[in-house]
Amino acid sequence: MRLHKVPIITFIFFGLVAQQVEAQSKNFFELSYDRGPIISNHNDWSDVLIDKIGYAGVDVRIGWRSSKNTYYNYINRYPSYGLGFTTAVNYYSEIGRPMGIYAFGEFPFGKNIFDRKLNFSYYSQIGLGFNMNPYSVETNPINGFVSSAINAHIHFGFKASYQFSELFEVFSSIGTKHYSNGSIKKPNSGINFIPIAIGLRVNLDKEEFNPGAKPDFPLLEKRGYWNIAAYTGLKSYDIGEKTYFRGGLGVNYLWEFSYKYRGGIGLDWFYGAGAHDRYPNENISFSDVNSFAVVGSWEWKLTENLYMPVALGVYLSRAQYNQEVNGFYERIGVRYRMNNNTFVGIQIKAHKAKADFFEFTLGYTIPDKHKKVTGL
């Protein structure tokens, strides 16, 4: 599965959310300008490159905030979703002019008070980055950030906004913007910006946003769930090498803590193909290409079907030839659970925020028979 399918899958997920909320929503348009430093990788080539380039960008977004009075919207404080386009202002021969298209989600802080002028929120974006000048040993050897013209676009941050009329709001935000191919092709240190933005939101609907009284909550079935997942992906290990299969299996037991969160613990197994091709003269053993880990897992439920998995794993054994460079790893992504308990998703597995590989996931959830029914 190639890199360009990552944002396609993500757009499908957010499209499923859009189908649920577009009948009752408040639509808006945003325009923003941002600039900020590029994060160094603390090596000679990145320091030289950062001295040559800078970052300033423009974003346009179209979005909607659901006013459908469901308990999932209520516990997530009536989030906003939408699509956006971003472009750097300046062109540099070393990295090009990075652009991206993305899906986003924005989640307010605080209580559900809808007539406040000043509001705070946090947001996430995931999509497709393009229009970059990748690494080339002949024509662009200094760019160790990215080696592919198309990359994943990932952006997380915090936002403050002030509504000064029915139609207009001003806002400012700060976050981390990342472009990476998930180690499908090396080199892949990733481009990391810290953009600080100012912008204007235009509310396209004059009606006041007011979903109404607190909705009725169903009884909460506090029970355990077994998640069984298969991970598949691709990884390149060295510059100029071909790409090899990376994948594994995970088994987790999660507990339904609340209407919003599940959490638990489990085991992961990872396998990396291609060691015999890369090291033909080595005696490759099972433990050289297979690794095992204990993993703490957490799920944030956005809707009845859509959720974000977050995990922190600690290796019990690391595979020597799989470039598992730290004793622990992180995982974050988005998944969609169908009504038959089958789920699909896309996550990024990383070591200290540096991509190991993109995980395309297919799995199944088995509810535990023992449960405790509670309500608010």
TrEMBL record:
Pfam families the UniProt entry points to: PagL
UniProt-listed Gene3D superfamilies: 2.40.160.20
Name of the featured protein: Lipid A 3-O-deacylase PagL
Protein's organism: Algoriphagus antarcticus
Upper lineage: Bacteria, Pseudomonadati, Bacteroidota, Cytophagia, Cytophagales
